[in-house]
Amino acid sequence: MDEEPEDLLERLSAEGRQLVPVSYRFLHVSPLAAATVMRLVVSAPYRASGYVCSAFRKPISKCCSQDDV
Amino acid sequence: MTSEPVFALFACCVPVKGARRSVVCDLQRQSLHFIPNGLYEILTEHSGKTAAEIKEIYDHEFDAEIDEYFEFLLRHELGFWCDDPALFPMIDLTWEAPERITNAILDVDERSDHDFAKILGELDDLGCKALEVRCFHRSSLAELRTILEAARRGRLRSIDLLAGYAPELTPEALAALAADHQRLSSIVIHSAPESRQLPPDRRGVAVTYRTEAVDSPRCCGKIHPGYFAIDLETFAEGQKHNTCLNRKLSIDARGEIKNCPSLAKSFGNARHDSLHSALAQRDFAALWSINKDQIAVCKDCEFRYVCTDCRAYLVDPGDLYSKPSKCTYDPYTAEWRQPAEERTSAGAQREGGSR
After folding, report:
1. Are the Cβ atoms of A60 and B105 closer than 8 angstroms?
2. Measured CA distances, B225 to B160, B229, B269, B303, B336 (Å)
3. Which helix (H) or strand (E) holds B132?
4. CA distance B274 to B295
5. Phi/psi at A2 (nearest 5 deg)?
6. Three-class SS of residue A57?
7. pLDDT digit string (tens) for B101-136?
8. CA-based nearest residue to B325, from B291, B351, B304, B286
9. What is the pLDDT of residues B80-106, one digit of tens each?
10. Is this complex's ipTM strictly greater than 0.95?
């Protein structure tokens, strides 16, 4: 690991920083830390239920249109 | 061992064939990658063969395309070259769950008279881990707190909250609600004056304001990519079970216990019947095993294992195995229909159509 954790955080967007704490504690010692954290941030919109690890993955009901927001 | 390397997909990257195109579902990164059906054929029928052998099979007519295909798979980190693919078996897609009920819907409107403590306690007994509370009316903060307070104890892991807009449901008030009730995993406020997506808090709880009104169960059943669940659990469940109704229990606004609030069949009323007794009725699980491979049109769709089905609003209400009527995707052309067409076709629907 050749980066300080602070440098890594600075590379993330404001939204990315919101997502980091869950993984950061163990990822920051990995040589793939930067790539992995960035991938988590990039893939966040594609997850069904945000970043809550314990959340149910699939939608329980489907009442909202796709283009309202 | 082969002398030349062969290509293997990562076990979490599973190809699914559609009528016109296929996808590789990356169940670890929760993403989809479209591929032509020719590449699907290479990845399945010619799995374990070297690139040279595959090119030979196609009489060297598509050598450049085959190289491009493998480059695409490598670039998107969907697979790798290896000497012995037998060392990398396919992932086991057997689905099992210890809970008798994994997810539940609780509908609330201005006339509801639910005993929230009783309902939440019984759901807890059944092992339910995820609950969606849908308040169709203009909801007060006090009312939401009352519902959530009943869920404060127990084994529920997540609560999705859908509620009608009221001026007191400010971002700050909802943030405080989420902080106070840490099982909340998402909050959607419908009928809001303007659409707004607030950034997720530190736990990842997103608050969304939407202008569209969600004022009855008839609003449910929409099928679009935003509702795809690209994860191993849903993908595995979808192989043999219905991805919407399997292990689901619903209580509509009048307290009727159902598979889905949009279906007509009731298995009792939560005011005087236990959820256990409803679940014990033979027909309760009848719809759980309708999987996408049995449903007309859906069985030819490349999204069939990541799409969370709907059995309430059907193209043919008399046919339990017909396509969800609110799905505008045509797998034979690989196109989503325009919303105008969607509105036209949705006009023919009726509540409780699948029974």
Report:
1. yes
2. 19, 9, 34, 9, 10
3. strand B130-138
4. 32
5. -110, 10
6. coil
7. 999 999 999 999 999 999 999 999 999 999 999 999
8. B351
9. 999 988 899 999 999 988 899 999 999
10. no
